[in-house]
Structures are given as C-alpha cells and as structure tokens.
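A brief tutorial aside. Many learners find it easier to grasp structure tokens once they have seen a single protein encoded end to end. The record that follows does exactly this for DUF4387 domain-containing protein. Read the sequence first, then the structure, and try to relate runs of similar tokens to stretches of the chain.
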Amino acid sequence: MPDPVPTLADLALEVRSKNAGPFWVTMELFMRDADGYRIAADESFLNERVIAELYKVDESEILFFRIPSLNVVKISFPRPISQGSLRDRDMHAGQHHVPLARMRIAA
C-alpha cells in the first residue's frame, strides 16, 4: 500500500546527486512546478541544519543555491570521504540523494 504522505521525490521531476570534484557532493532538486519549488526552497523546511543531520556533515560547510526561475534547489557539502579513497563506497556520489528524496512533506 503506498504511503499517503508525499516526499520531496513525489514533488520533483528529478532528485540527484553527483560529485562536485573529489572532495564535494552536490545534490539537486528539480521541482515539477512553482508550488513544489516553494516547499523545497522553504528555509524553515529544508536548511543547513536538516542537511547536517541527514548527512552527518558540519552545518557551517553546507551551501544552498535556490534558483526560482528554474524551480531548482542545489545543495553542496564536503564529502565525508574523498572520492576514490579506500573507504569510498560511492565513487560518483550517485546515491547520496536518497535520504533527501525520501524527506516527507508535512500535510
């Protein structure tokens, strides 16, 4: 049975993550419309504190880029483990977006 509480992924065309060089990750929320963008861009819903908790990174190092003309929110932060190091389990940072995409939208 589907979950009745929508997630960010439900409101987005695409949620993805990728390397931003060997030491940084960038995540992008491409929202379907202006209404979805307003939710994703709302600083009381999605902010540095939330990302720091989700990804166990220092809140002061998180960068947000809100682009209303494109309905896009970009978030960048240092990778906890540099790309290609012995302990790197996601070489291209392609799976980092999953916790963000699963964030529930308050009803």
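Self-check: The chain has one domain: 8-101. If you spotted this yourself, you are ready for the next section.
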